[in-house]
Amino acid sequence: MAHSAYNLNLTSGQVDLSHGGGGRAMAQLIDALFIKHFDNDLLKRRNDQAVFQVPAGRLAISTDGHVISPLFFPGGDIGALAVHGTLNDVAMSGARPLYLAAGFILEEGLALADLDRIVASMAAAAKAAGTPVVTGDTKVVERGKGDGVFITTTGVGIVPDGVDIAGDRAEPGCAVLVSGSIGDHGVAIMAGRENLQFGTSIVSDSAALHGLVADMVAAAPTRIRCLRDPTRGGLATALNELAEQSGVGIVVDENRIPIKAQVRAACEILGLDPLYVANEGKLVCICEADAAETLLNTMHNHPLGRDASIIGTVVADQHHFVQMTTGFGGRRIVDWPAGEQLPRIC
Amino acid sequence: MAHSAYNLNLTSGQVDLSHGGGGRAMAQLIDALFIKHFDNDLLKRRNDQAVFQVPAGRLAISTDGHVISPLFFPGGDIGALAVHGTLNDVAMSGARPLYLAAGFILEEGLALADLDRIVASMAAAAKAAGTPVVTGDTKVVERGKGDGVFITTTGVGIVPDGVDIAGDRAEPGCAVLVSGSIGDHGVAIMAGRENLQFGTSIVSDSAALHGLVADMVAAAPTRIRCLRDPTRGGLATALNELAEQSGVGIVVDENRIPIKAQVRAACEILGLDPLYVANEGKLVCICEADAAETLLNTMHNHPLGRDASIIGTVVADQHHFVQMTTGFGGRRIVDWPAGEQLPRIC
């Protein structure tokens, strides 16, 4: 190798500007870190793009920047999150994800050991999901112009024939389901930041949902109308988006929304409403009413849908409100979040 | 609209953390800025992914982060650059680019007027290239944790049947061409940063090269072996990469490498070697020798290839050296760049 003279010190070295310069130092970083971990033939060809065969049909593409702070958190890290976040956005069209691309923006001074750990975690998540990172890019910015590492991932996938899932397809009468307990990710991050001890550990739910989605699509290929992962802004925001896009109202039942006791307790301490707290391994599904039980059973049979619940119904509403029937029998409007209670949660 | 109450002040407003929060402020930013400028039906559906039809065949995907400083420079801005940079990487496989995805990482405090101008420029570049931005993502980081705006774009395209262009396909005897004068982009940026006045204005060559590539592919579909855009690290780095990937040597003739007189003069003042200075609208082509004249004529007939030149030859060399015959008749090795002379040039 022409650049074997430059050895990357993955134990005590740091990212410097030359790692983004296109020269030997960058080639070394790519070889010794990215290609080592991601380890696939497309990436190994070292082209500025990856070329692969696709069948004729509908392709889904999604991109997501990840700027979470801290980089390592209970239940995950920015690397695994960058895989899960984008795969989930691809899967929310009903698509089977195929490949990932990754763009790294590194801050000068980042410990190479941290980057190594992040990329290893990212590679493990990509491998577990069966979606290799086949192309990428690395840039370095000066100290104080970034924050360790930002990762923007893009995923492509194939939408099965006959599947038509989109945020504007909800209609009055449809059922609303959620795949599990809400608020885990945001609370895990906030607890980490605030250095809170809750006696019991809350971990992020960061997970790739495309396997669950594939089972759901197989069970009711034409009856699923909308899928959305309630990340930033939480369940409340996802429901408001879907109501807005479809031009409908949604009514949910507070008693049916799964929230872990320790998440609820932590939210009280932190002054958060769990409905607005981010999730990274959950989905909202809106389906035709007569498919709801089938889908609920399918979800219950998948490890990531064990706590799935039918939480409400789509209604006609010219205001496109999301309303919640409370535990006390009343109804309140679940509004869009106004400000930002949890910056850099993903 | 449920979020019409929030008005974005594009004249004197600034990005704040709520614009990345997933709530009303973010929805407003997406509506009033991104959807307004990018203006296409896929984006307007406001899903977290875009779904489109593709023919069976080979898909090319490339991703590129853009962190250039300053955001606005002679001949372009980060918005147009983020379109050109990624389209070019897709096109260097011989592919016809179809669609773009864009991930924005905004710094709190960025003037919305600047963002508006950048997104407008990006949309104009995407429209001119016929490659709409169909999906995207926006994140906001706190003041001092970013630098205005970083844009990571991802492009997908279709590789025509029979075309096989990659960095590892150069063979001894092949010809080496460059599509035009080198060093313009890097010198324009550096001159802007250093506030230098050169009497004559040097502007970035930032441009989308897929039209030029399409003409070249049509002229010699199976004879083009490698294409690469010499961005970071310049022509010297691109040639070294290709030599390394293909396991060959390359010999170029200094007299045949087009460099504008004012770029050469500026490089002398700035202490730069133009061979290592970034380009954003040029390509290196390695082709079978008997196709070189045909391709050169094709390039000369395209506005972005008017100054194209056959600059050298691929040779057998176990060291994979790039060598240059100098104007004085000698030969010197054109090595990989060691450090980083122009940080954040793209």
From TrEMBL, chains A, B:
Entry-linked CDD domains: HypE
Gene3D superfamilies, sorted: PurM-like C-terminal domain (3.90.650.10), PurM-like, N-terminal domain (3.30.1330.10)
UniProt domain PurM-like N-terminal: residue ranges: 47-159
Positions of the PurM-like C-terminal domain: 171-323
GO BP annotation list: protein maturation
Coiled-coil blocks: none
SUPFAM superfamilies, sorted: PurM C-terminal domain-like, PurM N-terminal domain-like
InterPro entries: HypE (IPR011854), PurM-like_C_dom (IPR010918), PurM-like_C_sf (IPR036676), PurM-like_N (IPR016188), PurM-like_N_sf (IPR036921)
Assigned protein family: Belongs to the HypE family.
Name of the protein described by the UniProt record: Hydrogenase expression/formation protein HypE
Organism: Methylomonas koyamae
Lineage, uppermost ranks: Bacteria, Pseudomonadati, Pseudomonadota, Gammaproteobacteria, Methylococcales
